[in-house]
Each structure stands twice: as structure tokens, then as C-alpha cells.
């Protein structure tokens, strides 16, 4: 896990700087400057664009990760060539989707989200920019260079958006220009990323046409067709909430929903930093048939992700009302939505790299079957629940789908491959986190937000971190703490 730890720490550092910027943007600045409809519009445009990009990019990311171990010795840089080719197809397909489904999409949102239909034309540049970002992000990922793409998306993009919103607040341009510049910020950052990928050094573009490579191409196509369905299904489960909330409840409710989603997305930061590198190592392990490495990665990623994800989730949960006290009152009633999303994400990440293992195994088709089944169930539940129960209905249906999906993946890996992510230390960590949360949650509050947050956070950390550290429940967590202590000693 050494390489995972090193790359994860760099990635996580950038990600948490981005989270601070994201909190400033999403919680402190945007809701206090933008109207609820304008804020909701910025969310729904990129949710729709992300969905279209995922559908039309033909599983590029999964293909690159799965087959790069077989292609990385190619002098023709087949990995980059394949990524560029699939991305070009994605751009063409995106244009066709947006053209032929324009009337249907506009009619669906005309009643409750008319502002979205007015800016429909921005979906195409937004989608292209996400396709471009997904390309260079996937390529850098297989090269184990995760930090740069994280910097662009988590820091640079958020700084650009912050600047645009502040300029809008001081009347440098009108609403129409603001929305266009907002989408243009994503386009500009994606262009920077593509330029940097092309400057990596190996600019050779070509594809080996030997019989061996052509046979591998057939495998790639087969794998891509199967995994794209899985990828689309998972993205729909995550993204369709925003689209259906916009359709049934309007852009103002999208804005409130976006706050709860953003606060829960923070929980994913540790898992993202670990999983990005681990997924590549899982692919390498399957190539060399090193199942011991697969077992080790499965257990360690599950342990570290439930630990770090659980810490972040519960730390936010005990401070949620205080963190949202800076927002207009309309945003405050979102705790239940956040808690459902947060708990779901802890369970999702706490089962380790089960998705990467399943996709790289001979049972990858089962992943697609599960994804499609759960997508159907999830969408049906959302259509039934959102009009009746509102935002909590959207969150509950998503929680059910994702938890069921992960339980099914766990059972497949357990039965088919005799793999399990659990250990004694895993359950000890979960017990410590739950006890600390209950104690901290029911502590009396002061009358000051500025006192509540540090006091509550300190108590929760004291109840969890020392015990986990001195009981040596996670080797990687202890190494992280030790590195932090050594760093502080150099400055004291």
C-alpha cells in the first residue's frame, strides 16, 4: 500500500483544499449572491452534461484503466490514441443526442424549470468540456499522476467560478453573461488539462495493427459495451436526483438539494484519493494473476475508507446546523437529506474497491446486470417518491439503490471469489465512530456558532482519533498521523 499511501496523501491534500474552496463557494458565497433559481441552474446544467458525457464517451475511463497494463509498453501510445478516438466519438454522439432530444428535454422542464430550457444551448459546450476532462483525467490516472487533474477540477475550476460569481455580484455583467461565463470556466479549465496531457512527452499517436493488438481491440470493444451500461446506470443513480428534482419540484428545490449533496460529497474525498490509485493496482494484479495482492487491496481500502469516510461524515453531521447557519433560512432544512446521502456514501466507500475488483474479474458482466436492475428500481422509486415526499424521497430512493447495489457486489465477490473486506479492526473502528457520534450529537450547544464548531469537533476527534491510533487499528492511518507529527516538529 506504499504507493497508494503516497499518491493518496498528495491527492487528498489537493482535494481538501478544493473542499474548503467548495464550501466557500457552495455554502457561503453562491447561495448569498445568486437567487435559488440561478444557483439551481448552475447545478442542473452540469448534472445533465455529466450524464450525456457518460453515455456518449463509451466507457473510456474504464477501458483505459482495464487495458493500460497491456498497452503501456506500446511505442505508439495506444492508450492516448484510444482515448482521443473514443472522446471524438463522444463529442459527435453528444451533438446528436442534444439535437434529436431537444424538444423532449425542453418540454419536460418547461413547467417547473423554464430557466433551464432557456439556456439549453449551453449543454453542448458543457458536455464537450466534461468529455475532455474525463479523457485527460483517465489518461493521467493510468499514469498514476492524479494530483494535476485534481488540482484543475478541485482548485483551479472553483477559483475561476468564485471569480465569476464575485464579478457578477458587483454588476460587471448581467445574468445572461454570468451563466455563459460560468459554463465557459469549465471549458477553459478542460482546455488547460488537455494541453498539459499533450505536453507529457510521448505525443506519438497511432495504433498497433498486429493480430495480437486487433484481438485485444475486440476485447476492449466488448468490455466497453458492457461497462458503459454499468457506468451510465451508476451515474444515473447519482445524477438523476438533480434532474428529477428540477423536473418535479423546480430549480429552487434543486438549490437546496445541491447543498445537502455537496456536504455529503465531502465524505468521498478520502475514498477518491485511495480508489484512484488502487483501481490501477487492481488491474495490474489481475494481469499478473496476483490474487493475494487483490485480497490485500480489498481489505486495506475498505478499512481505510470506512475510517476516513466515517470520520468526515460524522464530523460534518455533528456540526451540520452550525455549518449551514451562514445560509439563507430556505437552505437550513436539509439535514435528513444530508444524513441519508452521507450514510449511503460511507457504506459505499466502506466496502472498498469492490467495483474495481468486479470489473477486472471474469464476472464484470454481473456488474452491468446489477447496475441496470438497480437503476430501474431507483428511477421508479424516485418518480413515485419525489412528487409525494419531496427531497427526502429522492434521497431515500438513492440510498436504497446504492446500498442494495453494494451488498450485491459484496455477495458476488464473497461467493464467487472468496473475497471479503471485513476484519476485526473494521468493526472496532465502526463501533468507536458510532459511540463518539452519539455522545457528541447530544452535547448541549452554546449560543455561538464560532464556539459550537471548534468545541464539538474537538470532542469528537478526541473520542475517536487517539483510540484508533494507539490501538493500531490501521497501519496507513497511523503512518498518516506520524507523518503529520513529523511535519509539525520541523516547524516547531
UniProtKB/TrEMBL annotation:
It is found in: Cell membrane. InterPro entries: Poly_Biosynth_Transport (IPR050833), Polysacc_synth (IPR002797). Pfam families: Polysacc_synt (PF01943). The keyword Cell membrane applies. Keywords: Cell membrane, Membrane, Transmembrane, Transmembrane helix. It is a multi-pass membrane protein. The keyword NADP does not apply. The chain crosses the membrane at residues 12-34, 40-65, 77-98, 118-136, 148-169, 181-199, 220-237, 249-268, 301-318, 338-359, 366-385, 391-413, 425-443, 449-471. It comes from the Bacteria. One of its GO terms (cellular component) is plasma membrane. This is Oligosaccharide flippase family protein.
